[in-house]
Design goal:
about 500 residues; alpha/beta; eight-stranded mixed sheet; globular
Length: about 500
């Protein structure tokens, strides 16, 4: 079946001309906006468990309706992730993807082979997608990714992370996760270090300021997280879980993580993920059910799993994020939560089943171009919201940081209007937001002057800022109390005027 033929079939289905689903032998058609698990759940009006599944991939859809290139990438990638995932999540069923000829053996038959995936309409940055089983070992996962490819293997991902040098604790190198990571980096130079926190060539070398972004691109640190502690939060989340990473390949000029890391801030991945997951499970079970609703969530204990990193970027390197999403999938009284500024289509295949909250961080595009260096464009983050919701995530938004400069109210009004215009109703119905005013730091200010001084024109405003001691004990600067309160009031007024459906969970 060609893509155009499939499109005609799809139009007939929408017009009610196709046969009724529900019988074992009746094929069930899936379209690009029907990728959530509820669409194939017999208890929720889905097809019979033994019904064949036919996924329609039609070029005509992109001709009839204008799509942002990144949005189209996400849709096609999500479809192919879902096609691969059904082989493992459905028993007895079969699926024929449009890219697979009818004569190819179905999954589970003798000598099975994965259908050869076509390029995404000739787009070189989008390789064929494949998701390893959620229960796969690190070695099996690495093997599956190498055999079938994923977004993490794409040129776009390599522009974010092209690791050439690894600093690693010996125990991290010897761990299964460390071996998985290094198997993907066979040409990287490895330097063993006693501690991931004390690497003079990185953190203590002020000459690295001029190489701030290059180090983020080309350097990776592997360590073992020895202190596993879950801290109370009460703002964005009920608890801050021990994170799987520290540092980031992106280079947001206001990020609080590098304030404690000297003159360089590449990703540090913690390879003892089994211990981290086990700690979180024990903590969740010790809490029991949540008995009183709060701003974090009305029913579930919320655990922030990405306080000091970006889980979407971590997933370009290893399966730490996938392991945590899988763990929370089996914890009915809790949810994972992480903020991100990077759209990673591989996360669409992780099947979170509503137990992971993704918080897409947003700010006016002009601010993001100046301050959110190496991140996904704001429009792409917004465009990804429906895809992540359909893939089983809860999707919230972080309006952060709010930076006060001439024209900020106009630009935030435009951003909120855009959200209202483009987000579908299903996203709006479950969405909530956090508003976070800018907090800055004198040491980070000095570092930024060495690699991105233009950012400091808007971040460093001594006449409008005052010293504060953060919850973690750090001494920072924030907008003076009266200035901050007036700004929070104004942005909530803008929300009421332009996106009244967006509930504010907390603002500070």
């Amino acid at each position: 079946m060609t893509a155009d033929e499939a499109e005609k079939v799809g139009e007939a289905e929408e017009a009610g001309e196709a046969g009724e689903a529900g019988e074992p032998g009746t094929p069930h058609w899936l379209f690009g906006d029907q990728l959530g698990p509820h669409f194939v759940d017999p208890a929720r009006g889905g097809p019979h468990r033994d019904a064949p599944l036919l996924m329609i991939e039609a070029r005509g859809v992109f001709r009839r309706r204008r799509f942002h290139r990144a949005k189209a990438h996400l849709i096609l990638s999500a479809m192919r992730h879902r096609a691969a995932g059904y082989e493992q999540t459905r028993s007895g069923g079969e699926e024929q993807h449009v890219g697979q000829s009818a004569g190819e053996p179905a999954s589970g038959e003798t000598a099975p082979r994965a259908p050869e995936q076509q390029a995404l309409f000739g787009w070189s940055d989008a390789p064929p997608a494949h998701a390893p089983p959620a229960h796969a070992s690190p070695a099996q996962s690495a093997s599956a990714q190498a055999a079938h490819g994923s977004f993490r293997d794409s040129p776009q991902a390599r522009r974010m992370l092209d690791v050439r040098e690894v600093y690693a604790e010996p125990a991290a190198l010897d761990s299964p996760r460390g071996q998985q990571i290094m198997a993907r980096l066979p040409e990287a130079r490895v330097t063993e270090v006693a501690s991931h926190w004390n690497i003079p060539a990185l953190h203590g070398n002020d000459g690295n300021i001029a190489r701030w972004v290059r180090i983020k691109t080309e350097t990776l640190v592997l360590g073992v997280k020895h202190t596993l502690a879950t801290r109370p939060n009460g703002r964005s989340a009920d608890w801050i879980a021990p994170g799987p990473s520290n540092g980031c390949a992106m280079a947001c000029a206001y990020c609080y993580v590098p304030r404690r890391k000297g003159f360089a801030n590449p990703i540090t991945l913690f390879t003892n993920i089994e211990a981290i997951v086990a700690h979180v499970r024990r903590h969740v079970r010790a809490q029991g059910p949540k008995t009183e609703p709060n701003q974090c969530d009305p029913r579930a204990w919320v655990y922030d799993i990405g306080e000091n990193g970006d889980c979407s970027v971590d997933a370009l390197v290893c399966d730490n994020t996938a392991d945590l999403v899988a763990a929370f999938r089996r914890l009915p009284t809790a949810k994972a939560s992480f903020a991100t500024k990077f759209v990673n289509p591989d996360l669409l295949a992780l099947d979170p089943r509503g137990r992971t909250r993704v918080r897409f961080s947003l700010m006016p595009p002009d601010d993001a171009r100046l301050l959110d260096i190496r991140t996904s464009p704001v429009d792409e983050r917004i465009a990804a919201a429906a895809d992540f919701l359909d893939a089983g995530y809860e999707v919230h938004f972080n309006l952060s940081p709010v930076v006060l400069r001439p024209g900020w109210q106009r630009d935030w009004a435009d951003l909120l209007t855009h959200l209202d215009d483009v987000l579908p109703a299903r996203v709006k119905e479950q969405a909530a937001a956090e508003i976070i005013m800018l907090t800055h730091n004198e040491q980070l200010h000095e570092v930024n002057l060495g690699w991105h001084p233009r950012a400091e024109d808007v971040l460093w405003q001594p006449t409008a800022q005052e010293t504060k001691r953060s919850q973690n004990g750090a001494v920072n600067v924030r907008y003076a109390l009266e200035v901050k309160q007036q700004a929070l009031t104004r942005i909530q007024q803008l929300l009421a005027a332009h996106a009244p459906w967006l509930r504010v969970r907390y603002a500070f």
